[in-house]
Amino acid sequence: MTKLGQWLCGFALLGSAWAALALAPPGLQLPTPFRQALLPLPVYLLVTFGCYSLATVGYRLATFNDCEEAAAELQEQISAARADLSRRGLRF
Amino acid sequence: MAANSADKFSVLLPTYNERENLPLVVWLLVRIFQESGNNFEIIIIDDGSPDGTQDVAKQLEKIYGPDKILLRPRPRKLGLGTAYIHGMKHATGNFIVIMDADLSHHPKFIPEFIRKQKEGNFDIVSGTRYKGNGGVYGWDLKRKLISRGANFITQVLLRPGASDLTGSFRLYRKEVLQKLMEKCVSKGYVFQMEMIVRARQLGYTIGEVPISFVDRVYGESKLGGNEIVSFLKGLLTLFATT
Questions:
Q1: Of chain B's two ends, which shows fewer C-beta atoms within 10 Å, N or C?
Q2: Predicted ipTM of the assembly
C-alpha cells in the first residue's frame, strides 16, 4: 500500500469511529461530557500536531550544527592541494 | 586500517563547470584512499562543460594514471540519473561512492562510510547533515529553515527510516545501485529521496554517517521558489506512488 493509501485508511478508520461516537443518534449516545470532549477532538489534534511541528522544526533549526572547523580545514587543504598539483605539472 | 583487498571503490563524479574544484576533489580523494589502503578508481562524467573541465580532467588522468582516473564524458547536460548509469557501466569496483564534485562533500568521510558499511553489512551508507555532529557551513537562517522544514514534511509523509533524504553523499553496493537506478524515475532532489524510499521498499539496509556540508557558493541563491515547488510536487508524487 502506498503512504497515501495508509493515510487514507487511517483517516477513514479514525474518522468513522469519531463520527459514530460523536454524531450518534439520541438513543445510542454516550454520556454528555464524553460527547462534548469528542466533538472538537479532531481540531484539537490538528492544533496539537501544528504545535508539535513548529516546536520540532524550531528545535532542529536551533541545533543545526555550523561546521566552522570543516570550512577552515578545507581552506588549508585547498592551498596544499594547489601547491602539490602545481608541482606535479597541473596547469590550473 | 586493515583493508579488504577484494573490495574496490568506484567514485562517480558527475561534473558540470567544475574546472576549479575538480583537481582539488580528486587530490583529496587520491590522498584519502592511499592513506586508507583501499583499492579505488575515480570516474569523471563531464557533461560537455564549456569552462575547460575536461582539459583539467585529462591532466589529472596523466598525473594519476588512467587506471585510477577514468574519463567518461558526455556531449551535453543529460541529468544526474543518467550520469550515474553511464558511470556505473564503466565501474569495476564492487562499491560505488556518489558525491558532489564541488567540495561541498569532503572525501575524508569515505573511510567512515566504509567502516560503517562493514560494521553493519549495510547495502547503502548515507551521509547525513541532520544527525550526530553532521552539519552545514555557509547557510543562512532562511536556508537552514527551508532545509529543516522540508526534511520534517518528508519524514512525516514518507517515514523513510533515514534522516537525510536529499543528501547525495552515499556509498552503495554496486548491484544495489544498479537495481535502484532501474526503478527510480524522478529528477533533482527528489531523485535522491526516491532512491532511499525504493531501497527501503526492496528491503535494503541503510546505515548513516554524520557529514559536514560546506557550501562555498556564497550569495548565490540555489534554492529559489521554483525549486521548492518542484520539490513539493516530487514529494507528493512519492507520497502517492510509493
A1: N
A2: 0.88
